[in-house]
Structures are given as C-alpha cells and as structure tokens.
Structures
1.
Amino acid sequence: MPVLNNSQSIALQLEKVRPKVPVLFERDDVLLSLIQKRSDAEKTSSRNMRVPLQVRPGGKASQHTMDGDDLGLGSGSVYDVAQLSPVFETFGVQITKLVEYATTGNERAVENATKREVASGMKQFRCYLDTLLQTNGNGVLGSIASFATTTWTLTSPQGSALFYYNQDVQVYDATLTTNRGAATITSVDPLNKQITVNANPGGLTAGDVLVPSGLSGAQPVSLFGVKYHHVDSTVGTWMGLTRATYPEALKTPHFAAGNAALVPANVRLAVNKLRKVLGVDVLSREKLIAYMAPEQEHAWEQLGVTISEIVRNQVPADSGMPDLLFNQNVERRMAGVPIKTSIHADTTRIDFLALKRWGRAVMKEIDYYEVGGQTVFPVYGASGGLASAYLFYFTTGFQVFMDGPRYGAFIDGLAVPAGY
C-alpha cells in the first residue's frame, strides 16, 4: 500500500482563520470631532442662518477742560451680519445578499460583514467630511502636478492625503469654471502623493483640480474649512461679507514663513499678532489649539530634540541618557497651546484655532437616510425586478461658521522636513 502522505490527508485538516480584521488605511476625523465636541450646533432651516457681528467700535473720545467747552457729538458701534446655509453630503454603501448570508453567524465567518460595513461606513464618511474641513470652501481636495497615463501625481501641501480608494471625484480646470468630467480612484499612495484612476477625463491638464462627486457649475461651494475662515486678505468674501469693507475685522492674524523651517520666533510672532488684535489675555480667554500635520509636529519636536541634546552635553557623563524623543501620551504644547495633529492638515502651515468660536449650522446631523422609517433600500436589476443587493446611506446637512476670522492665527509657507 502507498504511504499516507500530506496531500492525501488535506481533506481532514482544519483551516485556521485569524479572528481579527485589521484596517490598512487611515480614516482620521480629528478636526470634525473637535468642532463637534467643542463648538455650537445651531439648528437651521433652508433659509440662511444669520451671524450678527460687532465689527467696529463706537463712541468718540476727546479731552476737555470742562469749563463750558463743547463736548462734541458721539457715535455708535458698527454691526453687520454674516450669513450661511447648510450643504448636504451623502455616503452610500451597497451590499449583496450573498455577503449577508455567507457572513451571518460565528460558524460561517469571523465577522458579520453587514454589521462591520455599518460601523466602517460611518467612520469613512466622517473621515471624508474631515477632509473637506481642510479646504477653503470650494471643495478642492487636490491639484494635479503631473500625470502618466492614469497615475496622477498631486501637488503639495497635502498631495493625495485627502483621497481614498474608490472615491468618485470631479476634475475642474484651475479656475474652477470648466468641469472636465468624473473619475474613480483605484489606488492611493499618500507617501508618494499619487493616485491612480480608472480613466482620464478629456482635456486633462497639469494644474487641474479635484473636487468631490456631485459638485457642479462654476465656482462650486462646499463645507467652509480652515482655509476659508483663516485668511489674511482683503480680497473676496467671508460668509456674505466683503472682506474689503471691513479690512481690519475680517483678516486673520498670520505670519508668512517664506518656505523656511519652523523656528520658535514664527510661533511667537503669530501668537503675538493675535494678542495685538484681541488683547494680551486672549490665550487664556480663548483656549486655543495648535492644529498641524505630522510634518510640522516633527519640526517642532526636532527643535526640542536639539535643546535636549544641548542640555545633555552640559550634564555629567554618569547622569544617564535622556529620552531625546517625546512621549506621545503626554499632551504636547506650542507656546502654551495644546497641539492637535491630523493626517489631513496642510503640511506647510500651523493654525491656532479658537474652537469655542467655531460652530455648525445644522439641518440634519450625521445619520441614516430615512424614508418612512426605512433605512435600507432595494437595488433593481436590468430587468426591472429586484437585484440580490441592497443600499443604505449616511447623510448630513450642515455648514461650519466662526464668530469672526480674527479669532485665530496661522503660520503658512513653512518648509516640510526632509524625508516626507
């Protein structure tokens, strides 16, 4: 008789499947979570929400002898109103019935795929909303530096960090007037700042920009992000107000680094400019955070490493080696302000955010799309009959506002440390 070998006993052997499913991509929602937790949420209708502002002081000061002289006339403050209305964002998830049948119960699968997709879909939707909060309100998530066939290299500062696999995007020209068409992302390489798409839209040109699916028309409007509210300019508008009308009130204090590496003086200048326009105690009153990408967190920590090295060289040799890096579990600070780091933040700037001055005009919180209590919808086949699949959607309708652009400061034009 032939010997029993392994190939003849395969049918008896059990298959081992590790009961853990790791996530191999990022889905940060740092800024979205901060704004939700630490700012106002105002319920709104489809009419514009109005944000009243005291933009200029009133009263006329003068000196007198009080010996019968004319005290003159007075004046009052100048008030105006900023306006905004919610925009709606949707995230659809589609699953076949076979997936549901095949992954229900511990005897069939290590996880129930349907339940996992509900949780995963919500996290990915929040990540997408967080990417929009990095923009200047027009939905531009990236710009094409060059392309080779269907592989696009995107420009700094964020490169491809604001995109994810299978995301649908619209391609516009650099002026946001010509919509060249749509593309679907088939892979994302954030370290090399590249994405691959299913097909190039007609007329694709270096310098074209990418916006989310669904935006249309010239100069589209999306969520108002950090770069919409933190602007040091008198050009354009802010929530319906012309910046040139109130140049002293609608500009955000800032320091331009000129593509130089971060140094403590940059931070001191930005913070002191904020103090000069809102008072010396603004840091204690407003409880700012320093919002930045890992690149600028690296630059700031490197300054600390240098200082630590200087200190180490001045202590006795037998005193032990200090830790030249930093405990990530300990709150890190910049000019006394807590640091909050996000993968999605602009790699060349640092924004000091006064989060209690930020808010959301909300028509619909993030939740399921519902019709008559139904949240799961059938898919129809080519015949007109039902397909063996179903859909559900997460939707939200909101817009992000501030009490005023002066409540914050930023540093831009910072050099990115080597290696990124």
2.
Amino acid sequence: MKYYIDMPYPSIDDLDVNVLYGQMMLSNLGGLHSEMNAVSLYFYNHVITEDAWPDLAQAMHGISLVEMHHLEIFAEMCFRLGVDPRLWDCQNDFLEYWSPGYNVYPRQVNTMLENAIIQEQKTIDIYQNQISCIDEPVIQSMLQRIILDEQLHVEIFKRFLKESENKCYYEETGY
C-alpha cells in the first residue's frame, strides 16, 4: 500500500527570505498540529498495534515516514525563508518548543483511528488557511501538494476504522 500520492513535490529552490512566512511555517514544523506531532503519534500507534493488528501497525509506520518527509520539507522551507528550523512554533513573536504532550494517546483502536482522522483534518484545514493567507506561489504549491498526502491518510484511516467497526474491534491495543 502507498501512503503518499505518486506526484512530485514542488521545488523550494526559488524561495526568497520572508521571516513572516517562515514563522507561519514553523507551526507546521513544531506547533500544536504539526508534522512532528504526526510523526511521534503514528510512531507510538505503530508500536502499540504491532501485535494486535499488524496491518494497521504497518500503515501507521508508513504514514509516519511520509509525515517525516513533510517535516523535512517544512524545516528546509523555514531555513530558506530565514528562520531557525528548530522544533518550535512562533506565536505572537513568542517561540515555544514542540512537546510530546501536544498529542492525545488513545489506546482503544477505534478512538485511536478517530483521533488520527481528526488530527489529519485539522492539519488540512490549517494548510488551506495558510494557502489563503500567503502570497507566495512556491509555498502555496507545496502546501497544496502536502494536502494531497494528508487527504490520502484520512482515507486510509477511515478504511481501517470501518474495518475495525465491522470486526467489532473495540478492545484496547494490549499495552
């Protein structure tokens, strides 16, 4: 199964320094609904579902790798835009480091999948909002491309959720 859309990501080579846009991209890197959140959450979900549901564990792992690629893209964008690409967010000129406490860690499989769908949808909404606020075609194109992957992740999680409901898969992950 593929966990990304088979389409190249736009080049960011032509990005000029723009600290304001860079600060906006920091939220995608280390904010409350960031790619770092997705990487860490799906890594955790992979580990705790490995014995109970290997196919779901594999999907969590594969999706986390795609999210890690998005994380790298946003870090490179931030650097090119002139901001320090640490795992932090800039809100009202205040920098706050990313925290694993940003994640919700449900243990019941259905709740885990519902949470993943909600988080992916929030990410899509944030990226769509950024597209409307940013007047930079390179950033807009990249956000649009990444949204395609996130939409695929929503569909994958929905398929697993439907399968779990059909199986009456309500038990916890076993940990």
3.
Amino acid sequence: MFRRESVFLLSVLLIAALSACNLPSGEPTETEAVDSVDLELTITALAGTPTVPQDTATPQFTATTGPSATPSVPQVTVTTDTNCRTGPGKQYDNIGALLVGQVGIVVGKNTSTGYWIINNPGKTGTCWLFPQFATVSGNTANLQEYSIPPTPTPSPTPTFTPTPTLAPPAPINNPTVAKVCILINPGPPQIFSYTGTLNWEDKSNNEDGFNIYFNGGLFANVPANSTSYAIPPLPFPAGTPTKWGVEAFNAAGKAAIKEVITICP
C-alpha cells in the first residue's frame, strides 16, 4: 500500500513540474525550482523504500536411514541343512552340521575351494562348511586363510574270508601188501601165518585218518598222513585169498575204498 502511494505522489509532482513549464509567458514569475538533486533524492527515497519481506517457510530436512549394521564378526546361515567336516570334501570326516535357522561364526576361509571355516555349532573346535548353500555377512577380507588338511588315511576294510566248505578227502592210490607167509602147520592142510605191511599213496590233504578194512569189514584205523599199516599174523590155510582195503575219511565224509588181495604162499 505504501509503495502505491509513493508512486502516486511522484506522479503528481511530475505533472506539476510540467505544468509550470507550460505557463503563458508574461512578466516573469518567480518560481521555486526543484533542485534536480533534491528531486532525484526524493524519487530515490520514494522508490527505494524497503518493503517488508514476507515470511518464507523454513526448509525441513528429511531424515535418511543409515546403512544396516554390519556384524563385527562374520556370520553365516544356510538355506539347506549342511554338513561340516574336517576338510573340504566327502573324504573328510563329518563332525557337525549347520542347520537352517542357525547362525554360525566364520573364523576362516579357503579361497581355492570356497569352503568357510566356522566354529562347530554346539560343539568345540572348528569345521569346514560346504559353501553352496551358505550366505555370509560381515567383512571377510581379513579372515585367516586356512590350508587344506591332509586327506585322512581310510581305515582298512576288513577282507571277508569265507570259511571253506569241507569236502570229503580224495581216495588213496596204489594199495599194495608186502606179504610175509610163515608156515605154522605143514598139514595137511598147510596153515600159514599171513602177515606183512599194507602200503598206499596218500592223495588227499584234508583227511582226519584212514580206515583199514579186512575182507570187507572194518579192521583198524590209522591217523592222517599215514601211508602204511603193519598186518598182524593171521593163520589161514595155504592158498586162501585175503583182501585188504584203505579208506580216507574226515568230518565231511569218506573216500572210496581201494583194495588189494594177497595169498600165501
């Protein structure tokens, strides 16, 4: 409002000055001239009157959310329950596991394999965590670099040795009699004492012994690995055939009997 009034007053003054210049000439009339400097000062003063500044809104600062806190110690979680071993691979012993929902503490790494070395969850010591399902947060640049441990020596697998099935022994071979004929009664009829040695070849390595047969009946037995039997004196008329047999045996059974016939004289 004050500014409009100032402009109006200035306009009136200018019109009055112009009107004075246009008065009819006659006797000179003494007028009070407006000093140009004063007019300039007046105009300047009127025109330069400061206006009251209007209030302006103070800018408001919007708070910005800072970055999420980074854990001071690197941590790891998994998307799938993951084994934790004594080294990087299935050839190493499985000594723990990190389960979904658990948070593990990372203490080292192996760059060449990508495995993380963590505190064994719920146990003492450390273990190597398979990295495929792992998500690590925190600064890992300064983690200790772990060397790959030696591959554990596998325990020898016991070799199963089946118990061999016992088979009957093989028959003896080539039975013979080294006979001795002693006349004990000149007769008639003549009676001889049949005696001598029964011999054979042992063809088995699993016999428990040998049975000795005389004329078809079991007469005696001798231990394993024997190859002879001393025939006791037996009196028979001259020309009587006698038959000796040898049979190898064990717990599984008996071999075929091999026989020999002898006659005195």
4.
Amino acid sequence: MANQRSVFANLDGLAVFFYFALVLVGLMSVYSAVYNPDRPMPIYALSTFSGRQLTFILSGIVLIMIICIIDYKTFEVLAPIIYFVICLLLVGVLIFGQNVNGARAWFDLGFLKLQPAEFAKIGCALAVARYLGNGGAKVTDFKSQLALAGILGVPIFLILLQPDPGSTLVFSSFILVFYREGLNVIFLVLIGVVALLFVLALIVKVVYLSVFIFVIAVLYFLYRWQIDRLRRQKMSNNHLVGYIMMLIAPFILAIGFVFSVSWIFTNVLKPHQKERILVLIDDSVDKQGRTTRYNLKQSLIAIGSGGFTGKGYLEGTQTKFDFVPEQRTDFIFCTIGEEFGWLGSLLVVCLYVGLLSRIVVISERQKDPFARIYGYCVVSILFFHFTLNLSMTIGLFPVIGIPLPFISYGGSSLWGFTILLFILLKLDSHRNKLFS
C-alpha cells in the first residue's frame, strides 16, 4: 500500500490540477449546453449528456488508477503491440463500424459508442517514441524518415477511409516532435508553403497562380545565381544546368500540387466538405437551413454576445434555445464564451496554456529519450486539438469535427486524452529510475 500511495504522490501536481480543472469546466459546459429551463434535470442524471459525461469522467479516473498501477516500463515494451492492436481496430471499424453522417468511425456497443481514431493517437505516440528513443534512429536520416512516415501513414490511411479528415489532420502535429528531435526547419517552412498554396489554389485561378509561382521561382533562381556568381566569379555550364534544374523541379512540383488540389476539391470532396472550406473564404456560401455558414455565424454570435463578463451560468440565450448545432461537442467553447464572456474564455485558455507549458517542462526533464519524445507527442497532439478547435469555433479554420480536449462531450475523446496524458505522468513519476 505504501508503494501505491507513493506512485500517486509522485504524479506532477500542477499537471493533475490543470487536468481536473479542464474536466470540471467540461462537465459544467456540457450540462449548460443541453440544459432545458422548462425541464431542468440534475447534472448527474444518466438520461442527459451531462450525466453520461460524468460517467465518462469517473471511468476516466479508473483508467488513471490502472495506469498508475502498471509498471512504467510496460508502455515502452508493449508500444508496438498497442500500435498494432489499434491499427486492427481501425480496420475493424471499417467493416463492423456504425455509419454516422457518412462516416464509419464508431463501434456501437449498445451502451456506448467507441471511436478507435481517438486512441490511434496514443498508439502512434508510443510507437514514434519507441522507434526514435532506441538510440539507433534519427529524424535526419532518410531511412528513419521513411519508417516514421510508415508508422503514421498506416493509421492516417485507415482513418481517411472512414472518412474522418479532422482526426487525420491531427497527425500532422507529429512534425513538431520531429523538429524537436532534430528535423531541419526547412520542413516546417515547406509545410507552411504547402498550406499557403492550398489556400491560394481555392481562391485564385490556377492559370494566374501558375504564373505567380513561376515568377517567384525565377526571382529565387536569379537571387541564388547572383550570390553564387559573386562567390565564384565564374559560372561553369554544370553550375548553370544545376541552377536551371533547381528552378524547374520546384516549379513542376508546385504546379502539380495546385492542379491536384483543384481536381480533388472539384471531383473528390463531398458537397458538405467543400462548403466547410468555402465558407471561410466566400461569404456568399450560405444556404437555407443549418449549414456551415449558419453554424459559424451562430457560433460567433454566441461568443460575441457574452461580452466581457458573460451572461451568467445557464443564462446563455444562444445556448438555451439551441441556436448553435453540436454545441456540446465541436462548439462547446461557444457555451463558455457566451456565459462567462471574455474573462471566462481567457481563464480556459490560460488553463490550456498552463497544461501545455507544464507538459513541455515535464518532457524536458526526462532522462530517458522514450519518455521525452512521448511527452512532446502529447503536447503536440493537445496543442493541435486546442488550436484547431478554437480556430474552428471563431471562423479561422474549417469546421472539421475537432473536439476540445477534456471539455467536449464524448467518452472516446475524454478517455483517449486522459490515457495520453497520464501515461506521460506515470513515466515522469519514475524519471529518476528510467536508466536503472
């Protein structure tokens, strides 16, 4: 019993505090989002979403206890097996899963729906940490880059087949982990360029964009050629050919990417997926009924109506009259913004910043590479979820179904984030023993 108490006592107190604070905010927000003043129900009523969320929280505490009891070495040893099992679940959900809103992403177990994609992030985090933490792999080696692409590529492909673009996008957060482990910053720049080209491909005609890319390529070519000429004083034919290839190759790749984005947007994406993207760049995309533009407008109205201090708990009119669809899940932040205003929203943001900062501190103090890399996987995943959900809620990013960690309603997401975080806290509680 003394050993068990010491295990819980060694958990990082600040991280645990931030976790339970966010979970409590989530429970209160879910209750408020579904609160009916004409038929008020207690927060613990199992017939309500808040009651079920409370059940998820309590079962999450059981998961925390199990994680704390398990030997800390188990997570590294079983990382490949955990990854393999989760991949099998992703295959299984494509065959046996329930189709909801055009996506086959949930197992319907009767008493609950389980979404394997939420646990795939845990499997990938453990697998990446195990691969990079063994000492023989480096993110700067091409062979290791291919292996890491394979580790992430399998679940990404399976989740795309569901399809669930929101969950797929979160896996791009691992680029931050690779950057921390030594990946050249040029990869981050390339990702930014790709994102910019993606947006431009949607709002600018392909012909005009192609000319623009060509001009940029020529200017860059002239700049590099002039720098090299000044250094060498004389330019050989081989150098000239090399610079011409340096101009042509990126140009062809960029143009190919632009045309592929245009083709995929036109021929592959479903109408509701196109609308989620266009609604951010074209105000005319607004149809009758509860469309993406309607959802976004109501979200902004709810947050803006809260003012500085908010309307008060359970007093939000946008929330009370169900103006914002999916408010207990994707748009849960609207409830906080309307009822607690700018101050309440800032407090929630500060809780997230506090948790993310604490995870970085925890990760940096690890002596074992596996624990350090896993810690950065955790903070990267949480950061992407937090950033994308808030950006989606205030209209800076397409509505793609990204839950707000620990706050949005849902058992799979809450359990997934809980397991993800407390595996790290378990490893951290034994940080002085990892090399023993």
